[in-house]
Amino acid sequence: MSDATNDLILKRILDAPRAAIWRCWTEPELLRQWFCPKPWYVSDSRMELWPGGEVMTVMNGPDGERVENLGVMLEVVPGERLIFTDAFEPGWRPAGRPFMAASVTLADAGDGQTHYEARAMHWTPEVKAEHEAMGFHVGWGIAADQLEVLARKL
Amino acid sequence: MSDATNDLILKRILDAPRAAIWRCWTEPELLRQWFCPKPWYVSDSRMELWPGGEVMTVMNGPDGERVENLGVMLEVVPGERLIFTDAFEPGWRPAGRPFMAASVTLADAGDGQTHYEARAMHWTPEVKAEHEAMGFHVGWGIAADQLEVLARKL
């Protein structure tokens, strides 16, 4: 299956430069400031920018919830593209139930703006539907708003 | 899950030098000569030696069976280690039902011999059991015999 049937996609034009958005995704100190829809927050994160590198976030909820996501980086094109997945843990060990591979793609839109695409790619229609029901569009949309606000300040 | 519970492992000392075994795995013209237990044979293969590179074999059976395996390379340490998976197609698209990641690890054993480990890593105990029932140990064992014969001639 090489079509996009099982993808969920968020596309935006963000009012911030591509380099600033790249920094917000790849520098953990910045990522922690926008990655979760508030009042959730990220208490720890790692983002190793090479194939097989560790990608990790710990998200915390207002009632003490704690969700740790661990995965690996698959591809890095500096300033343009990140792809990572939870299907593997570092060392390329198959991990749990593969949920998604996610790609982030940036392109200049002129006037200091950026075409922003965040794509969640799933193995099955069932997992795609589950992700959609978990609030993909609202959640990733709020995160993109927070990302834009932060990137404009850099 | 970062233990090896869902792995199937073949370990051998092969009577051939490490560099020759590496060539047999990474040069498609050589891989085709040993990769399938005969009378099955490989009619086409590709092995791109970088993360995200295409890994493909077409295996053919004596009664006209044709099995195409497509995946991507995850890690390459020249002369020492290959890891690849069918969980993705080139372009890092999630593909079908993830069956396994496979690693091949080589180390010098002295006297022109090589420690050879072929490991199939699965996401679930069910898929591991399925792979075992498909004849992992016999099939990969015969293939290792054929690999050794070819590598000794190089």
UniProtKB/TrEMBL annotation, chains A, B:
Database matches in Gene3D superfamilies: 3.30.530.20
Ranges of residues in domain Activator of Hsp90 ATPase homologue 1/2-like C-terminal: 15-150
Pfam annotation, one family: AHSA1
Family: Belongs to the AHA1 family.
Name under which the protein is recorded: Polyketide cyclase
Organism: Paracoccus aestuariivivens
